[in-house]
Amino acid sequence: MNDSTGKPPEEDPWGFAASKPKPRAVAEAGDDPFGAFARPAQRASSEGEPQVEAAGQRLSGVEGSKHGHHLRDRAFSLTVALSTVFALGFIAEIVAASRFIHLTGLQGLVIIYPLGGLGLILVAFAQVTWIDRIDRQKAFVRVALGYGVVFIIALVLIANPSERLSVIGTGLACILAEQMNFLLPLIVWAMLGDLFNAAESRSVFPWVITWRYAGQFVGLVIASFAPLLLTQLDIPLYTLLIACPIGLIALAIFLPRSLKGRALNQSHGEQENIQESVKSAWDFVGGVKAFRAIFITSSLVFVAGSALEGTFLSQSADWAKGSEAKVEILYGSTLLFVFIICWILQRSAVTKTMEKLDIPGSLALLPIATLIGGVIIVAGVQVDLLGVMLIGIVAWRVPWWSIDDVARRAAMALVPDQRRARVSFIVDLVPYGIGLITAGGILGIARAFDAPIIAPALAAVFALAAIPASRVAIRSWADALLSPHLKRRKRLAER
Fold this sequence. Notes:
Keywords: Membrane, Transmembrane, Transmembrane helix. InterPro entries: MFS_trans_sf. The chain is mainly alpha-helical. The protein is built from 15 helices and no strands. The chain is globular, with a radius of gyration of 22 Å. Mean pLDDT is about 85; it is low at about 1-65 and about 490-495.
């Protein structure tokens, strides 16, 4: 990507994302999820300093050096926050979803999915108005404290002897879990983007991602195996949810103190209402054809994936025959199995795949995998074998949690600082909200006709429709990199 200013190519800090006609291996990329986009261009550094390469590349000599340890020290508090958020989010998602499907069956999902999707979209639009205008740690504190308080309310309702109030509290916990797993990580990643320049992030982000995986693993293990102990002790399974408000409030107190004196984003000073802020973010998405195609692809894929997830949960509840513990163990163990596969792929295949396919090609894998998952679940429902349906869920979840997630982070790195968080909300969050709302309707149709096979069949249709949209993103990616919307420069010198 050449600048009109006449800079030599090696000075271009975003050359790592340019489309490559012939894939080129990156030496010693290891398990670095951003290694796929490195280029060999370098610039000289002062004697005695680690050699600094163009943004998106490795800092030569940083790995294992004092400077590398310094980068990790700077990232430590945010890494702990990210890991904790994912641990709490996974506990909340598995415990709340299992309890809700146990109490209400498919009928409950028909109601809670649209409510959850609408809640995600409304909260995302509300945060779009101020997320790029105020200090990000203030945003995190407000959201974490708010969720912590609402979780306490949900727990009070769940523990109520009234079955109706208990169902309402469980549904509220489901909605909170969805938001925790999406909104809070986006804010933390935005703070990490503020704290490190592009070359530094190339070195420290793989370490951050490793600890994010650790948090996910801890949450999945606790949610999957705690029922074995709690049922023996005659303790309600929802007791695990107490960890969520405690952890969120602790993070809201801990994070500002640990980040004291750190330079994060500064307000751009513009006072915008929600309409102006949403328009600003959407102008970016609408103005870059590749990002518009990614948005459409994501919306269609998440409709399909949410419908598949709902089908699997409802069939799991039927299989468990009234046992909440069985539903939670099955659902948690399934996601734990998915996580282990993702970790193996992260260590062995994600970087090589992204080297070959680049960002848009990597994002195009999820629609294909979701289509395959839909076909498998259709077969599983037809023969009434939960094990077959489990394979379908794995087929959809694995690429979503692995290569698709890494490719999205790489794509968001190209967005200017002042718009990155709000564009991320639009591109990452809104499609998932649309997916939940539409999937609720699909599950409602399946329930109305008493034909569970309808939901995965329609999911396969939506996944199939996402494939042409993903191809548009691939074809338009090279042109998108030349768009003035994506021209962003960040100093390589350490802040």
